[in-house]
Amino acid sequence: MNIVIPDDYQDVIRTLDCYSQLAGHDVRVLHDLGPASADELAARFAEADALVLTRERTRIDAALLDRLPRLKLISQTGKVSGHLDLDACTERGIVVTEGRGSPVAPAELAWALILTARRQLVPAIEAFKAGQWQVNLGHALAGQTLGIWGYGKIGQRLARYAQAFDMPVLVWGSDNSRAAAIADGHQAAASRAAFFAEADILSLNLRLSESTRHGVTFADLAGMKPSALLVNISRAELIAPGALLQALDAGRPGYAAVDVFEQEPLLAADNDLLKHPRALCTPHLGYVEKNGYELYFGDAFDNVVAFFGGAPKNVANPQALANRRA
């Protein structure tokens, strides 16, 4: 079968151990950067019997699907999200399979950002390379309150890391999230305003949905301490457009560490957030890690082999099986 794997930015997928699962298939791995037009995507995917998507890097909508008459399968790395029109796939008999996620690499990156931002490592290292010695003063984590909005798998790992660093944990989120945090020995914020006001480091760990999109406002951020750090490794769209930059310029919070952007890949070197002296920015590295890739693509490739072997599994739209394309 003809399998297309788009958005391999680093050209690493063929180096994975799990890539051998696709032996015997005609596989084309694409490394294009930047947003592609509908015409470009239709041309790239024209001969594909199956697509293996790298998380949410490519949007698949009904209009694009109508231009891909050969397509039978979309194998998603991780879980299906808003980048993929699942109903449109079902209507056209295109089967969608999904795999698992892991909180390990994203949580570790979040902690790396927290440590790097709090100890001001990047400006210290850059100055050191320029011949300067000890140009700034960082802050230890012990005693600082870690605020976690979203006490799921990643949030829970961050809370355990915080305990190892002698940091109290303050949680905001759903009733269930707050109750789970209390059961684990942490504090639940008395209110949303108190959560933003009391956290020294505030980490957003929410799924992006219509209810959470642009849910963090400038008013929320303006209620943070001037010394506070806002961390976002989840989705840029959790924050209202322009609100974080506006808040940094206003001095509340004083610092930000972000791994996600509304436009990805972000290739504009003159981006205001990238240039901000109190913002630490990384190019969406949360899940970009060897073991995580082996998990994500191992599942996706296994689902491809099972589908074309006549035994589909992990199907997200089982209704499509009844009228799947031959």
TrEMBL record:
<dbReference type="InterPro" id="IPR006140">
    <property type="entry name" value="D-isomer_DH_NAD-bd"/>
</dbReference>
<dbReference type="GO" id="GO:0051287">
    <property type="term" value="F:NAD binding"/>
</dbReference>
<protein>
    <submittedName>
        <fullName>D-2-hydroxyacid dehydrogenase family protein</fullName>
    </submittedName>
</protein>
<keyword id="KW-0560">Oxidoreductase</keyword>
<dbReference type="Pfam" id="PF00389">
    <property type="entry name" value="2-Hacid_dh"/>
</dbReference>
<dbReference type="GO" id="GO:0016616">
    <property type="term" value="F:oxidoreductase activity, acting on the CH-OH group of donors, NAD or NADP as acceptor"/>
</dbReference>
<feature type="domain" description="D-isomer specific 2-hydroxyacid dehydrogenase NAD-binding">
    <location>
        <begin position="112"/>
        <end position="286"/>
    </location>
</feature>
<dbReference type="InterPro" id="IPR006139">
    <property type="entry name" value="D-isomer_2_OHA_DH_cat_dom"/>
</dbReference>
<feature type="domain" description="D-isomer specific 2-hydroxyacid dehydrogenase catalytic">
    <location>
        <begin position="23"/>
        <end position="316"/>
    </location>
</feature>
<dbReference type="InterPro" id="IPR050857">
    <property type="entry name" value="D-2-hydroxyacid_DH"/>
</dbReference>
<keyword id="KW-0520">NAD</keyword>
<comment type="similarity">
    <text>Belongs to the D-isomer specific 2-hydroxyacid dehydrogenase family.</text>
</comment>
<dbReference type="InterPro" id="IPR036291">
    <property type="entry name" value="NAD(P)-bd_dom_sf"/>
</dbReference>
<dbReference type="Pfam" id="PF02826">
    <property type="entry name" value="2-Hacid_dh_C"/>
</dbReference>
